[in-house]
Write a structure and sequence with these properties.
137 residues, mainly beta
C-alpha cells in the first residue's frame, strides 16, 4: 500500500461516532443519529449513498471519528484507477473504484472524482469530494 501524490487534502470534517471498527480513508454511510451524534458504518452494498470518507481509523464501535464530507480527501482504492474519472463506492469495506469498472447510471455511491491515478489495490489517492444521490420523482 502506498499513498500517492503530494497535494495536501483540504478539510470539511465532521465529528461522528463509529458504528463498527473502521479503517482510515474509507467511504462510510450514515447509519443513524443518536443524541445528536451521527453514527457511521461501512456501506452494505457497493452503491450505497456515501456520507463521507474516514480521516482516521476507529478501533471500536462508539469511537469518535472525523469524516470528511467536502473538499479533497485521500481514499483507499480496490484497483487501479484513472485520473479524472468518477470515484464510487466499490465494496462493503468502503474502498473506492472508478466508473470504468462498473455500469454507472444512477449516481448512488458517488464520492467525487479522482484527482490522481492509482496503480494498484490498496493505494491511497486524492479525490475531489462530491457526495450526492440522484433522486427521481
Amino acid at each position: 500500500m502506498s499513498i500517492r501524490g503530494t497535494q495536501a487534502a483540504s478539510t470539511d470534517d465532521y465529528s461522528c461516532r463509529a458504528g463498527e471498527v473502521l479503517a482510515q480513508y474509507r467511504a462510510v454511510v450514515l447509519d443513524s443519529i443518536e443524541n445528536g451524534d451521527h453514527i457511521v458504518k461501512y456501506p452494505s452494498a457497493a452503491r450505497d449513498v456515501a456520507y463521507g470518507i474516514t480521516q482516521e481509523a476507529a478501533a471500536a464501535s462508539g469511537d469518535r471519528i472525523s469524516v470528511r464530507r467536502g473538499g479533497t480527501s485521500y481514499v483507499e482504492v480496490d484497483e487501479a484507477t484513472t485520473l479524472g474519472r468518477v470515484a464510487m463506492i466499490a465494496d462493503t469495506v468502503g474502498r473506492v473504484e472508478d466508473t470504468a469498472s462498473n455500469n454507472w447510471a444512477s449516481g448512488d455511491g458517488v464520492v467525487g472524482s479522482f484527482d490522481e491515478a492509482a496503480t494498484a489495490s490498496g493505494d491511497k489517492v486524492i479525490v475531489k469530494l462530491n457526495l450526492y444521490e440522484v433522486v427521481t420523482a
